[in-house]
Amino acid sequence: MELAEIGLVGLGTMGAALALNIAEKGHRIAVWNRTGTVTDAFVAEAGELAARVVPTHSLQALVDAIAPPRAIILMVPAGDAVDQQIAALRPLLGKDDLIIDAGNANFHDTERRSAEAEVQGVSFIGMGVSGGEEGARHGPSIMGGGPRAAWDRVAPILTSIAARHGEVPCATWMGPGGAGHFVKTVHNGIEYADMQMITEVYGLMRDGLGMAAPAIADVFDGWNAGALRSYLVEISGAVARAVDPETGAAMLDVILDAAGQKGTGRWTAIEAQHLAAPVPVIEAAVMARNVSSRLAERQAGQAAFGAGPQPVSLTVEDLEGALMAGKILCYAQGFTMLDAASKTFGWGVPLPECAKVWRAGCIIRSDMLDHMAQALTEDPGRNLILAPTFAALLKQHHGALRKVVAAAALNGHGLPALSAGLAWFDLMRTARGTANMIQGQRDFFGAHGFDRLDGKPVHHGPWGGHA
Ligand SMILES: NC(=O)C1=CN([C@@H]2O[C@H](COP(=O)(O)OP(=O)(O)OC[C@H]3O[C@@H](n4cnc5c(N)ncnc54)[C@H](OP(=O)(O)O)[C@@H]3O)[C@@H](O)[C@H]2O)C=CC1
Ligand SMILES: O=C(CO)[C@H](O)[C@H](O)COP(=O)(O)O
Predict the structure, then answer these.
(1) 184 labelled catalytic
(2) 290-330: per-residue pLDDT in tens?
(3) How far apart are CA 409 and CA 398, in angstroms?
(4) What does the subunit comment say (predicted)?
(5) Is the ipTM of this complex over 0.90?
(6) What is the DSSP string of 5-63?
(7) How many angstroms does the Cα of residue 102 sit away from the middle of ligand 1?
(8) 348 C-alpha vs ligand 2 centroid, how far in Å?
(9) pTM of the predicted model, to two decimals?
């Protein structure tokens, strides 16, 4: 039998879609799934693409079905499942073979697996794939990390299945070790933040302006025809317009307000803290998901204090401007965090390429990312808020953000992400801040010392013997 060019383990939502995409682009692919009946059902439903799919029912059969040097994609849940599959595959693989973890992964795990692979003589790539099921099937955004030579070996297949922005494939090597998974993690952190900010303006429309779901859908559709054009605004319109087949009510009005999460947003927030790279909008978005899941406490809070959200005097245009400003602030934070990680870990992540690889295929794709790619190409070391295009947009829209946050605060709407973005923006445009007080306090109780504005070599205050 003709050997496959590549193998794949894990025919769940993403793995099945990715395998069909690979087969559709003309590559013969061998597949294996822990539950064998899933493999059989996958092939039975693959239609004419089944001709390029080799179903296997043991890992040995999978390995035997692939032409050496082999490349095997893992598309299984993050954590133990990946380690288990690597441990099971490793004894079956040779020196030049390659394992690609294409699921979401904590980059610390990827760094560890990369180091272990080097010792064991099997190549390892940690690769972020974004775009959900639809993206995986028809063109995801792919962020690779690991040995450059290993990436180059599989790049022809990966670029053939990736989304395209114009003619440019959205599949890029981001650096060694965990760089690819780190970039995907920050992508997801931004995804959390973008979703949360959209959710906050949805809440203002629903509870502050008294708009019904179809009217809210119209607003999102309108925004999606303008500067906010993006996949997340587009699907928010579709979600708001959908009707529950069971009750005939708007879908949004029957969905429980408790958000799930698998961990990538939390990983972003934790790593940002380690890197001392502020990403307050992302942190706020993670916090908001955590609060959302504490339904019983929220019910008790409403009983104790009364429902928060009251009518607001805002326009849909105010909300659009606030979202524009919030989005710029959040992406600026995300790219700054990537820059900090790249420098700390010595990865050399190409920031303009990150923006480019996110322009199509992935969940955070938007028109704005094309302008961000241009701004980062001009000067990768400059904070995006200082790039002329985005500085001009912020000057135009930060007033709307301020108005929206203020009206929300006065009328009981919690806007954690938009408020966090505004607070960060105001700190970032204040040359003389207030941390002199913190330094005074630290010196008072702990003799930690401080620098003086006048440069004099006196590093302690007259605290009456305390310092
Ligand atoms: N869904 C999405 O939108 C996206 C998901 N991802 C990431 O892709 C990866 C896969 O996600 P998704 O396809 O949604 O998940 P699914 O739950 O749909 O599929 C999981 C797959 O992994 C297999 N599996 C689970 N545990 C093990 C194990 N211990 N050993 C071997 N195989 C196992 C399952 O096999 P079995 O049939 O036997 O249960 C199944 O094939 C995750 O890392 C996820 O974070 C990335 C981007 C988008
Ligand atoms: O990686 C993804 C999208 O880019 C996955 O859909 C991921 O599951 C989203 O994160 P969460 O489940 O925590 O919302």
Answers:
(1) yes
(2) 999 999 999 999 999 998 899 999 999 999 999 999 999 99
(3) 16
(4) Homodimer.
(5) yes
(6) SEEEE--SHHHHHHHHHHHHTT--EEEE-SSHHHHHHHHHTSGGGGGGEEE-SSHHHHH
(7) 10
(8) 26
(9) 0.97
- With a Cβ cut-off of 6 Å, ligand 1 is lined by 10-15, 33-35, 38, 75-78, 81, 84-85, 103-104, 129-130, 132, 262
Say whether 191 is catalytic. Answer: yes
Coil, strand or helix at 254: coil
What is d(CA 164, CA 171) in angstroms, rounded to the nearest whole number?
A: 9
Tell me the CA–centroid distance for residue 265 and ligand 2, in Å.
Answer: 9
Instruction: Sort strands 53-55 and 164-165 into parallel, antiparallel or unpaired.
Output: unpaired
The residues, any chain, with a CB within 8 Å of residue 424's CB and separated by 6 or more, are 278, 280, 281, 329, 333
Domains, the chain, ordered by start: 6-175 (3.40.50.720), 184-428 (1.10.1040.10)
Q: Are 358 and 365 in contact (CB under 8 A)?
A: yes
What is the Cα–Cα distance from 110 to 234, expressed in whole angstroms? Answer: 33
Contact 244, 250 (CB under 8 A): yes
Q: Is the dihedral of CA 87, 88, 91, 93 positive or negative?
A: negative
Percent of the chain with pLDDT over 70: 99
* CA 257 to each of CA 251, 291, 346: distance values in angstroms, whole numbers, following the listed order: 12, 10, 41
Of residues 5, 111, 184, 320, which has the active-site annotation? Answer: 184
* Cα–Cα distance, 41 to 151 (Å, whole number): 31
Residue 183's nearest CA partner among 370, 360, 365, 338 is: 338
